[in-house]
Amino acid sequence: METYLETERLALRRFTADDADLLIELDSDPAVMRYLSGGEPTAPEIIRELHLPRILAGYEKWGGDLGLFAAHERTGGTFIGWFLLRPEAEGPLDEVELGYRLRRAAWGKGYATEGSRALLGKAFSELGVRVVWAETMSVNHGSRTVMEKLGMTLAGTLPTPPDMATVEGAELGGVRYEIAKERWERR
Ligand SMILES: CC(C)(COP(=O)(O)OP(=O)(O)OC[C@H]1O[C@@H](n2cnc3c(N)ncnc32)[C@H](O)[C@@H]1OP(=O)(O)O)[C@@H](O)C(=O)NCCC(=O)NCCS
């Protein structure tokens, strides 16, 4: 396993074509999917035929530096979920999105903050990134708290996408947080 990034407790690596089952299991927990699909699992064939091929294609496109990364506990190797650091499909490479989706068993241990903090550090110090942004539903307090702990600030509100209209809290829309390199370095 080639490590992309290590933190005190986590190791992040690139996904491989053999990882569909990890992604399928992660997306099968209604609690994990609560603010993403309203709790509906992602269909295994969508993961196998669409999501995983897109993740792998992203490594080709961005030279393995950006994309979605599998996270494991360094002690014991348990898969805890994924983090993403990636530009928009046709967007500039120096403006990237941060995201995370962790297995329920891994919540409440500071892992989302720890992994994200290391990713921001890498983005700004090694990858030439200028701005990192993240979006979530207004009611996703866990996700918002992670963003705030990272020093990201609220940059605006967003309409709920039509395909998320039935998700709990959709009427309150979404939020976008951002942090620029200068602010990260001054924190
Ligand atoms: C959101 C998520 C990534 C948080 O992961 P986590 O590893 O538990 O987060 P951390 O332990 O780093 O917590 C950071 C802070 O958020 C707080 N927090 C976490 N979940 C919370 C919740 N549901 N409500 C309120 N605060 C919460 C923690 O208490 C902690 O604050 P503290 O250090 O002051 O105690 C995780 O719950 C998850 O993967 N959820 C499902 C997928 C998802 O919604 N992803 C985000 C989509 S935009």
UniProtKB/TrEMBL annotation:
Keyword Acyltransferase (UniProt): no
Gene Ontology MF: a single term: acyltransferase activity, transferring groups other than amino-acyl groups
Entry superkingdom: Bacteria
Keywords: Transferase
A Pfam family annotated for this UniProt entry: Acetyltransf_3
Start and end residues of each N-acetyltransferase domain: 10-173
Stored InterPro entries: Acyl_CoA_acyltransferase (IPR016181), GNAT_dom (IPR000182), N-acetyltransferase (IPR051531)
Protein name listed in UniProt: GCN5-related N-acetyltransferase
